[in-house]
Structure formats: C-alpha cells, structure tokens
Amino acid sequence: MTVPGSWYLVLSALLFSLGALGFFTRRNVLIMFMSMELMLNAVNLTFVTFSRMLGDIGGQTLVFFVLVVAAAEVVVGLGIIVAIFRRRSSATADDLSIFRG
Amino acid sequence: MIDLLATQIALPDLITFLIAGCAVILGALGVILMRNPVHSALSMVMTLFAIAVLFIEQDAQFLAAVQVIVYAGAIVVLFLFVIMLLGVDKKEYLGKDQLRGQRPLAFLSVLVIFVEIMALSRGNWVSGAKGTVLSTSSPLSNVEQLARSIFTTYLLPFEATSVLLIIAVVGAVVLVRRSDVKSSPAEEPEELQTESEMK
Q: Coil, helix or strand for A3?
C-alpha cells in the first residue's frame, strides 16, 4: 500500500503555512515572491493528491494550468520588481508606500 | 502509531515520502530564513525538486518532469537573473515594523490557517464520488490521460493560456523597457516621465 493521501495533504498544509509565514514576515520583495511560489506549490501538491485519491485526472490537468499561470505571473511580477527597483533602488517592501493616501 | 501504519505501507514508498517531505520542509524553511536571496532561491530549488519526487510517487510523471523543467529550471533561473541584476540586497531592514505588531500577528494568523485546515478536515480529507478515469488502473499512460483531458475537456482553457502567455510576454517587455532615450529626464517634467514609463 502506498502512503495515505492525508499525509501528503498535511505536508502541503505545512508548506502553505511556511509560505504564508515568509510572505508576512520578510521585507525583501524577491523573497516574498518566492514565498508565494511555495504557496502555489503547496496547492499543486494538494491537487495531485486529490487526483490520486479520487482517481480522476482532472486534478493533474488543473496543476498544468496552475504551472502556466505561475510562469506568466513570475515573468510579470519580476518585471514589476525590476521597474520599481529602477526608480527606488531598493527591494524592501516597506519603502514602497507611495500609494498611501 | 507510526509502526502500526508502517506495517501497511510499503517501505520504499514510506522512505521516499519521508525523505522528500523533509526536503520540502527544509527547503521552505531555507527560503524564509536565509539572509542572502541567492541562498533562498537555491533552497527553493530543493523544495521544488522534492515536490517533483512526490509527484512521481503519486503517479504524476508528466507533471514531475514539467515541474523540474519549468519551476526548478526556468523560474528559479529567472529569479537568480533578477537577483544578480538588482544586486544582492543583503541588508534587509529588520527593525521596527511599519505596521505595529505585524510579526506576532503573522505568526498568529499562519497558526490559525494551519489549525483551521486540520480542524476542518477532522480526518475526512476527500468527499464526493470517485472519478471514472482511474489514473493508476487505466491502461493509458499518465501523459496520454493528461493529453486527452487537456485537448478534449479543457480545450478552451488551454487556448486561453496561450493568450495569457502572450499578454505576459508583452507586459514584461513593456514594463522593463526604458523610457525614450531621446527625451532626457532633466527636460521633462516628473509627471510626464512617469506617464511615458507607464506606457
């Protein structure tokens, strides 16, 4: 018998929590972005696990789409970070308070 | 309890899961704890690779390959490029929070997320009818099953992703492009320059 799906789900919940923790506590924009990738990967692991537990390929299809969206998101996000860095020459999130009313 | 479960679980599966699971958690801790962003990116490679191992363990071979190529290959290299381009920002400001009590609140809310997931599941992790296309017992290979699913049921979303990718490429080029070389920033008022950069 293989490892039960619940173990995978607990693992991905842990991974998601760690990603969220990194996103909330770190100040470097790049590391916040990486934490977001960790959360996306946790969700991907969940989808694959559900796909196996329910015997349906749909979960894996969804992971495929998440991968595409993640790639597009990384490209645009890093573009935004580079554009911000050109103007502010800093990659700290707390410095970016120009939108404050 | 572990021993009792281990009698039912095949030992190779268990060992693979434990090693890959430890690698996932250690890599994630590395991402959020390392001072140097380059080290964080390399820790992320560890996490992504271990997740690919877990994909293979769950009979998702195609996604494991894509995970290694796209995530551990392309996306991490993109991160490293940007880190190198911007210069490693080693001195991260870790003094007083701008939002008061942000860090304790962050720990608290993350704990709430985790406990909530655990409490809501209460041991019942999936519900609902089982699918008809069983991924392990079907005679078709994983790649073939995935291809059938993408090119029949999910054809329209698949086409939409191509549009999305083109938009992302154009958007990235527009975002990173420098404003016109001819107009020097000194002659131009600040607002106009911002506007031209936005475009």
A: coil
Give which of B75, B72, B171 is closest to A76, Cα–Cα: B171
Q: Is residue A52 part of a domain?
A: yes
In a domain, A31, yes or no: yes
**Chain B residues closer than 8 Å to A38 by CB:** 28, 31, 44, 47
What global pTM score does this model have? 0.83
B35-53, pLDDT tens digit by residue?
A: 888 999 999 999 999 999 9
Query: What is the ipTM metric for this complex?
Result: 0.89
Chain A nearest-CA residue for B131 = A56
Give how many domains chain A has, as a whole number: 1
* Residue B95: other Cβ atoms inside 10 A: 7
For B:132-151, CB contacts with A below 8 A are: 132-137, 142, 145-146, 148-150
Could you list the residue range(s) of the whole structural domain that residue A30 is in?
5-89
Asked if residue A51 is part of any domain, the answer here is yes
